[in-house]
Design brief:
Elements lengths: L1 H8 L12 E3 L1 H13 L3 H23 L15 H19 L7 E9 L2 E8 L16 H14 L5 E7 L8 E7 L3 H11 L8 H9 L10 E3 H13 L2 H27 L3 H13 L2 E6 L4 E6 L8 H20 L3 E9 L2 E8 L2
Antiparallel strand pairs: 1-6, 2-3, 3-5, 4-5, 7-8, 8-10, 9-10
Helix pairs in contact: 1-8, 2-9, 3-5, 3-8, 7-9, 9-10, 9-11
The structure holds zinc ion (ZN).
Length: about 350
């Protein structure tokens, strides 16, 4: 709720950071994608937690917009035309409040039929899939869950589900979501297929290269409001802290190892300087490396993404540092300790025996 309020107010993250300061999408995207790649239950977890949070927050948003909470009472009795126009307008307004303010995409209800209930929503410039290509299916589980949760709360129906019929990641021009009654057979079938995609292989190195070169991967630019991303990741992690704490370190390590060569090659400087530049340019994190061959101590100053989710978020970050250090030194490093010291994350690595 607090993050959502900050997104809506365009507030800055913390003292010392400008209001609405931008951050590259690569970091949160790759974290979620790496999780999805490693664990097939993750798409469903993301979808369900986004849906529930959106449902809970919908009333607060509606109140903030000055709408009566029972506005959609008797939605079922409305004519198709009235339902389409009114719902379309309100949904647009709600999402532009949450998202445009955070430089998010453009949303439009394209089709609506009442019986059986089916709502098609087009969404441009989605941050979840921006710059990603080559997937055989849609990957915007957070937004699918969020749209479902808000629309379900508005029209007071808890039997809705949603799948993505088209996505930037699968070669579309925009993301298109279809919401409908869970009990309807084609919705149920498409929904299940959507949440259980075939095993994915994500080319995050290619995505990273584009981010490093500051290629414009979305028409709004590469950047998006920090608070919006924190909202997305906090949302996903909060409901599943154990899972992410357990798998985060391992997934992060793989990921760090995969991108180490690209990071080194791109900056073409001394290895620890490359590591510092990577975190500073892409994550706005200040990283300091001390120690030598026997023991390395990496300090990450005031981790933006970790503020609300320390244990879970830093499991991935500590793993990523471990993987990067291993890749950069050419020596497999083990994680000896990861702890907080005055808001700074201190990760200690030693060579693997
Ligand atoms: Zn998408």
């Amino acid at each position: 709720m607090e993050l959502l309020a900050r997104v809506m107010k365009k507030e800055g993250v913390s003292p010392g950071r400008a209001a609405g300061e931008d951050i590259d999408l690569f970091v949160p995207q790759s974290m979620l994608l790496a999780m999805e790649e490693s664990n097939r239950a993750v798409p469903r977890l993301i979808y369900l937690s986004a849906r529930e949070t959106a449902r809970r927050n919908a009333y607060m948003i509606v109140r903030k917009l000055g709408m009566p909470p029972d506005y959609f009472w008797k939605f079922e009795l409305w004519t198709q035309e009235r339902a389409f126009t009114t719902l379309g307008k309100i949904v647009q307004r709600i999402f532009s409040t949450i998202m445009s303010e955070a430089k998010e995409g453009k949303l439009e209800v394209r089709e609506l039929s009442l019986d059986p209930l089916r709502i098609s929503v087009d969404f441009d410039n989605c941050v979840e899939c921006a710059g990603l290509r080559g997937f055989p299916h849609g990957i915007c589980y957070y937004h699918a869950g969020t749209f479902t949760g808000i629309i379900a709360a508005l029209i007071n129906r808890d039997n809705l589900d949603c799948y993505e019929a088209g996505c930037i990641a699968s070669g579309g021009e925009r993301c298109s979501f279809v919401l409908g009654d869970k009990s309807s057979r084609d919705i149920a079938r498409e929904f299940e297929a959507y949440l259980e995609p075939p095993a994915m292989k994500v080319d995050l190195v290619n995505r990273l290269t584009r981010s490093l070169k500051k290629d414009s991967v979305r028409s709004l630019g590469n950047m998006v409001n920090v608070n919006y991303l924190r909202l997305v990741t906090a949302n996903v992690l909060r409901d599943n802290p154990r899972l992410f704490a357990l798998t985060g370190a391992e997934v992060g390590r793989h990921f760090g190892q995969n991108v180490a060569g690209t990071v080194r090659g791109f900056y073409g400087v001394e290895k620890w300087q490359a590591l510092k530049s990577y975190y500073s340019n892409l994550c706005r994190l200040e990283v300091d490396v001390r120690g030598g061959d026997a023991e390395l101590q990496i300090t990450v100053g005031k981790t933006v993404l970790a503020a609300e989710n320390s244990a879970e978020m830093t499991a991935f970050l500590a793993g990523e540092l471990q993987g990067l250090a291993s890749g950069l030194t050419g020596q497999a490093m083990a994680l000896k300790e990861s702890r907080f010291e005055d808001n700074n994350l201190v990760v200690t690595l030693v060579p693997e025996p």
